[in-house]
Amino acid sequence: MRAFVTGATGWIGSAVVDELLAAGHEVVGLTRSPEGEQKLTAKGAAALRGDLDDLDALRRGAADADAVIHLANKHDWGNPAESDRAERAAVAALGDALAGSNRPLLVASALSGLVEGRPATEDDASPAVGPDSNRGGSENLALDYVAQGVRTVIVRFAPSVHGRGDWGFVNFLTAAARKQSASGYIGDGSTTWSAVHRTDAARLIRLGMEQAPAGTRLHAVAEESVTTKEIAEAIGRSLGLPVVSVAPEDAGPHFGFVGHFFASTMTATSTTTRQLLSWQPSGPSLIEDIDAGAYTA
């Protein structure tokens, strides 16, 4: 298949490009820069210059592809409304380009805010509906395109998609530990996160593109529940720093913006995903990655 990938040079996207090429698929990656274009062509992929605000480029990439994998997001933590606006506009452009084709559209989503008091399952619908909701309601918007002849597949990622070179949440927690000279957890550290290794997430995306039926929600979750205290202890070991409890009211000053997420339980099961696609995660665990120095290089 010829896959058009947004976010193709990003943390998850670059692994997805490698996975797709290794499986014999063609890849066209969206990139904003000459450096990104060079990275893609060096791998054997093609490049399409543009970004999430270039809706014409998104439409062209989708129109010329057998499948679309949408992973890009602005992640503007200082202006989340702008990230949500861009995300919704991008999904609409991609969906419109694929309407009536029955071609797959895989859309990245998150586990946060789905349910409270238990791990989320693939059957749980996102409560985010409409342009003013989280991520611009892009998950439900994408699923609306199933009725228009698009094989929409939602991929919800664990809050930690980890590995060497990760610049996501655990990287920010590690930076906060260095700055504060102590690795912290909030309260009693019983808040929990799900996790998945980057290569396992990439393989799941490929399998979803190849096999998942229209309207499927997939959970890129290898470990259902890792406590934030365990994460803090591993970061402390890796940096040789003490591990301390941080009062909830001090989480912002201690951790920065990531403190809000570190205070939230974000967990999910992936039983249905594993059964549907015969997906078996095989990468190292989050704690194993931290202990191996993935975040201290």
UniProtKB/TrEMBL annotation:
Location of the NAD-dependent epimerase/dehydratase domain: 4-212
Name of this chain's protein: SDR family oxidoreductase
Superkingdom in the source lineage: Bacteria
Region feature (Disordered): 118-137
Gene3D superfamilies for the chain: NAD(P)-binding Rossmann-like Domain
Stretches of the chain forming a coiled coil according to its record: none
Native source species: Streptomyces drozdowiczii
One Pfam family from the record: Epimerase
CDD domains the UniProt entry points to: SDR_a7 (cd05262)
